[in-house]
Amino acid sequence: MWRAEIDGRRLRFHLTGINNQNFLMADEQTGSWWQQATGEAVFGPLKGRHLDLVPYDEIGYAAWKREHPQGRVLRPDDGAPWRRFSKDWEAQTAKLPVVTPARQGDLLQPRDVVVGVRLLGMARAYPLDALQRQSPVEDVVGAVPILLVVGEDGRSVRGFERSVDGRELHLFAQPGAPLRLVDAETASTWSFAGEAVAGPLRGKRLPWVQTLKDYWFDWRTYNPETSVYSAGLTNIRRSL
Amino acid sequence: MSAEPSKSRPRRRLAGVVLFLLVVTALALVIVPVWLIRPFVAQTPEGLAVAFGLRRWAPPATVLILLAGLALAIAVWRSGRRGGRWGSRTLAVLALVPLLAAAGLARFNIFEKMFSPLGHASFASAADAKWVEEGDPVLAVTQGGEAAAYPIRQLAYHHIVQDVVGGVPVAATY
Q1: Which of residues 107-146 of A touch B (CB under 8 A)?
Q2: Contact A82 B142 (CB under 8 A)
Q3: How confident is the model at residue A236 (pLDDT cuts 50, 70, 90)?
Q4: Of A58, A62, A63, A110, which is most buried, counting CB atoms within 10 Å of its CB?
Q5: Total domains, chain B
Q6: Does residue B121 form part of some domain?
């Protein structure tokens, strides 16, 4: 989700090619080519410039609708056969070949889904499988204490900085529905939106940490120095 | 059989060779970049740089090549004698077909056409969005009090959706 603007000038993009399974887009205004995964211009007059990231959520529609009943939803393009884009397209995509080679000693398979976090130059990949089993997961990335939470649908993942007014918190899941977390420091109750709904910190919000749900091979291509959260990995691969 | 002037046959042959080279070059200018950045093949930084350069220069270059080809074809046509060899005139004219095609294709973004760009994004309110199911994942943005959701099934099809949310111009990509 990129801010379509450079130096105050609105940019309009067109698909222009593929670079190792991540697409390139060209802007009409300068003809520069931008890499979709990084928002960086790789060719053209704006080469080297970066688009700003707009904070976004990848979330189940039901959860989004509950939080934003007044929101708007992209209409389908009736001319396009997108409905034939089947419901299990993700499963089908998972079978497609990967062109970047897997590395010896990789703990993850190329098409394993990870949730990537990049903070202050440090990158970490959290296998979705591990997050689903261990949510909420606390960690520290780039010296920032973070929290990764999986939503009630079992698929939506959000990242937050687990600190309020400079104070670090430790959060745990409360059993039952709807999804609630409780912090050890004040026993306040927190929602999936990262907002305290009860307790001394009621009304406070945890700062948003942008996460990216991605295939391992793609995350690693753009974050070559990434570490991997490996607690609880069930399929450690020693050799290929 | 009428005698040909001794100069015109080798000249026509040379023109034919040049026309052939022009055709090959024009087609290469259009085909090579698409070949280099096709899906399911690894790209190298050098290959990308070549693709970019060719795509950038192909529109003016193919026009120049077309004009050169046109000039040559006219010259060949004129040098052919009435009732004489029709072969070289026909070939000269036929050569113009790929040159025209290349000049047109150089301006055509085949990649975008393959992936169904969304010309104009329109929206429904959350209450009216019947085509999305509860479990469907969406990419959602909230800016300046406005909330917009882009169902991933639609985004994955179009790859880019451009919008303005709360005054912020965005490109939702997937």
Answers
A1: none
A2: no
A3: very low
A4: A63
A5: 2
A6: no
